[in-house]
Every structure is written in structure tokens, then in C-alpha cells.
Predict the structure.
Amino acid sequence: MAAGALQRRLLERANLCSRCWHDAVQRCICSRLATDLALSLPIRCLVLMHYKEYYKASDDAKLLPAMLAPGLADIFTYGVPGELDRLQAELAVDPEHTLILWPGDDSLTIEQFVASLPTSSPWHRPLSSAETADRVEASAQEQHNGTRPMLRVVVLDAVYRHARTMFRHLHKTAAEGLPPPKHVALHPRTLSVYKRAQNGYAQASAKSTAKSADPEALRICTVEAYALLLEELGEPKAVPQQLVQAVVINNEALECLESVAPRSNPTGRRARRRHHLERERAAAEAHPQACAAAGVDGEVGTERGATGCEMASSTLEE
Ligand SMILES: [Zn+2]
């Protein structure tokens, strides 16, 4: 069913850019996105994306494979036959150096995760001065020498209830004889700029984090979560910052879409209001990593206006 739905979506949205998933003619943001970003640390991102998020302009996880160098990020589409098996096969490569970003009960901090690795793991070792001086080269050398193994990070990309289902499914279907991957929650020091945070997500997150066992573990969007994880692991800020900036760029394209849609959409004020409320409801239970609370709007506000809404639009895509 999911595969059929995806097929139909791809056909219906043939106008979209295959890289950024915005309208290829009117709103493509690819020229503003960095490409082939190399990391100084051997970390591979495995995006488990719910099929309903696939090929949606508002999705942000698409930015990871679009921007990172080949081999550093891959999308596995939940709901499409064979995709979970492909992911499980990857998780089985080196289970000890694999984690899921998920802020649920019993989650570890990144420090606890590293401490839980076998004492022989080179991930215990702080980065050397040589790496600090030229870490990309040093890391490549390390990989070559096999001293610091690839760390695999699963990120879940879906609205909250779907992500929770995917997480549970992943646990239940862990490869035979293997424990499910450990899950790690972040303590981000930056605020979310994620689009959905503007639509009531902040309040939803504030409530959910206040009730959780770890209220300090704020929730943010998929790309931001990954960017922060990279920083917590010791990756220099340059690449994480470019990833977060891409979220801002994606949001600007979405804002343009919304700002012009009412003028060209003849459905009337009441319909637009209904649509807005539907979006708010959806946003309130959006991504599991999503949302940092207070200050979100202010931060977005300063980032906005950098380019203005120069792009045209005809319809809302969600
Ligand atoms: Zn594009």
C-alpha cells in the first residue's frame, strides 16, 4: 500500500526537484545548499523516513543525503517492502557502534553512549592534535588504518506517533541475536529554527518534555538533531552549521509557498482558516526530535528576510 502511494506521489509531483523536493522551476533551493560535505569523523547517518514524509517539500531530513558527501547519509523508507531489511542489515554491521537518536525513556546522553562502548573502542580516545589541525585528513587516515570505526546513527523522520511506531518496530525486529541499538537523547544548546515549531509545536514540545523523565532533553527537527549530535561527538562546527542553515533555507522556501498561496488559491477565507488549523494540529504532534521552545520565533525572525520571498507559488503542497 505504501509503495503504491509513493508511486502515485512521485507521478503527481513530477514537477519537484529530485534533490530538494521543491518545485524544480519555481522554488528549487539546490543552488543555495552546500554539497559533498565531508565530516572529520567517520559517522554515517541512516534516515528511517516514514513513507508519508517522502517527497514532501516540508520534510527536512532530505537535506542530509542532499548535502553530505556520498556514503555519509542514506534514506530508508519505512513502509516500502525491503527497506527495513536493508536498514537491519546495516545495523548488523557493527551493532556496538550504532545508535538511534530518540529522546524516550532510558535514553543515554552521548557521553553515556561513548562510555558504554567496549574499552578497546577508539571512540573513547579524544581527538588528537593532528586531527584538530587537519581533522578531515586525519580521520581519513584513521579510517584507512581502521583505528576509529564508522559510527552509525539512525534518525527517525516522521510525525511523532509514526516515529514512535517506527522506533518500537525497530526494537522488535532487531536482527536475531542482536540487542536493539541504544538510543541517545540530545541536550541541545541552540534553538530550533524548524518550520513546524512556528505552528504550535513549541507548546506541544514544552508539555511533552515537561512530562518526560528528562525534561532537559529538548526536541528539535531531524537535521538539527543530527547537527547537534555531530557537535557533541566532536565534529567542528562548520558542517553542523551548514546543515542548520539549510533548514533555514528550506523554511524560507516554505514560507514563500504559504505567503503567496492564499492569493492564488480561490478556496476562500474559511477554507484557508481550516487549512491553517489542520496544519497546527499536525504540527502539534510532528517530529519526535522537533521543537525547541521559547525564542524560536525570534531566532527565525532574524534569519528570515535574508533573502525575502522572491519565489512564486501556485498551490500548497502539503
Ligand atoms: Zn532542488
